[in-house]
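Hi all, posting the design record for the shared folder.

TITLE: backbone redesign
STEP: 1 of 1
STRUCTURE INPUT:
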């Protein structure tokens, strides 16, 4: 086998050497910037971060303006099909935006990595680093002893506490660590042995991708590492105005954990990230979500997290009401029967609508067509028929007629239906006929009717007012 490998390498070349041949020029550019930064002030070094962010924002401006313009069009577009096309355009522009961000980060990577390396060097060479105090410095100084204020100046110390362990910063990135950082940014796996500085390597791509403001997650195998590494590396990022937090300090679904996810850089264990993801998928409203849209993540001990730990699935469940009794299982057969009955009925109505319209009676044909649309708007035969010339215009004209005067005439359309579907407002309503169909077994008809909350409140207020008059 080794003989075969040697033959392959002779004709194809060594993959590692090829990869390094592409990375070494980038490393050289990083070190060129790094050497040039030695002469700039601390404030000028920190200003680089603002410049990087402005570059990203400037490149994205046209893309963001295009998305905002389409969103305005969506708000003023009543037609559901047109809205769907506009949303597809937004998806396309969002993908373009991701490509713009990727190319911009590739462009600024050498200088951004050099900024992190120079920051590390200054923390090694100086027990204190003095800079013009920003609002972020003032906020950080309230909770962290390594930042102190002196007038308009902020003084950063090179020693701090890392999860109970006092440390003095003593690391500057070697070329091999720059190579590892580039590999991680490119989405590759970087294998490094214990003691080779994996934690320091991660600071490079984490800083670079945090510049987008979309959030960076660093996933570790246990909470000790998550808490230690987040505290250990925090000043390097915070020195440049990037916020950092660790989800393992906070309870699930708490405001503090939600805030931790909003930081520029978020550390945490794979299990906590995983369970938060599962809980978000069980959320009842957007306000219950804790994780923002995923952007960029680095997985520490990737073999352990994605192979060893992945053998044990994360399982989460919600409360089961009333023991083994499930309303879903009880109601599903009735709902399925209701849908099947309406589908059968509307198949005939659609056939009749086609014939009536073909005979030239657009008034009656439009009514039948609207009835099908109100009852089963996603019916394939209906969608196909609506694609024919003039049919959709007839549907919209008929719908506008029956919707006038606050839907006064719409009951004429819905009278024969069991339920109606309003796609624009994402609502489904049972008709009187549908309620009767569901209550054939002697069930209470009110079980299927949602109470009029507004009417009940008005009734209670009226009763309270009458009682007050009597007193």
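Okay, here is what came back for every position:
SEQUENCE:
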């Amino acid at each position: 086998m080794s003989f075969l490998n040697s033959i392959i390498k002779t004709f194809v070349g060594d993959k590692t050497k090829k990869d390094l041949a592409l990375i070494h020029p980038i490393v050289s550019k990083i070190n060129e910037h790094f050497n040039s930064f030695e002469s700039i002030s601390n404030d000028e070094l920190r200003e680089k971060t603002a410049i990087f962010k402005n570059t990203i924002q400037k490149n994205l401006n046209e893309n963001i303006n295009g998305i905002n313009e389409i969103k305005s069009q969506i708000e003023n577009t009543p037609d559901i099909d047109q809205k769907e096309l506009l949303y597809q355009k937004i998806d396309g522009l969002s993908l373009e935006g991701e490509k713009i961000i990727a190319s911009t980060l590739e462009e600024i990577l050498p200088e951004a990595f050099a900024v992190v390396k120079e920051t590390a060097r200054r923390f090694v060479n100086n027990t204190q680093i003095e800079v013009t105090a920003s609002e972020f410095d003032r906020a950080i100084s309230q909770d962290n002893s390594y930042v102190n204020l002196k007038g308009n100046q902020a003084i950063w110390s090179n020693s701090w506490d890392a999860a109970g362990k006092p440390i003095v910063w003593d690391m500057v990135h070697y070329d091999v660590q720059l190579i590892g950082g580039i590999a991680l940014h490119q989405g590759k796996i970087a294998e490094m042995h214990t003691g080779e500085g994996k934690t320091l390597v991660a600071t490079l791509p984490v800083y670079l991708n945090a510049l987008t403001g979309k959030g960076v997650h660093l996933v570790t195998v246990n909470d000790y590492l998550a808490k230690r590494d987040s505290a250990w590396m925090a000043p390097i990022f915070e020195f440049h105005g990037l916020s950092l937090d660790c989800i393992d300090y906070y309870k699930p679904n708490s405001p503090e954990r939600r805030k931790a996810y909003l930081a520029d850089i978020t550390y945490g264990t794979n299990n906590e990230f995983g369970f938060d993801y599962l809980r978000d998928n069980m959320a009842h409203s957007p306000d219950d979500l804790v994780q923002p849209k995923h952007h960029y993540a680095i997985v520490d001990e990737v073999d352990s997290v994605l192979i060893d730990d992945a053998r044990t699935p994360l399982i989460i469940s919600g409360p089961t009401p009333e023991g083994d009794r499930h309303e879903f299982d009880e109601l599903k057969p009735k709902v399925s029967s209701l849908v099947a009955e309406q589908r059968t009925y509307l198949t005939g109505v659609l056939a009749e609508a086609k014939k009536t319209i073909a005979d030239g009676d657009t008034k009656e044909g439009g009514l039948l067509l609207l009835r099908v649309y109100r009852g089963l708007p996603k019916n394939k035969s209906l969608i196909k028929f609506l694609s024919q010339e003039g049919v959709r215009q007839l549907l919209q004209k008929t719908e506008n007629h029956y919707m006038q005067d606050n839907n006064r005439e719409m009951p004429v359309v819905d009278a024969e239906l069991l339920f109606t579907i309003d796609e624009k407002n994402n609502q489904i309503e049972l008709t009187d006929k549908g309620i009767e169909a569901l209550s054939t077994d002697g069930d209470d008809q009110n079980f299927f009717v949602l109470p009029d909350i507004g009417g009940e409140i008005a009734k209670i207020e009226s009763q309270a007012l009458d009682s007050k008059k009597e007193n």
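COMMENT: Residues 80-125 form the longest helix (46 residues).
Let me know if anyone wants the other runs.
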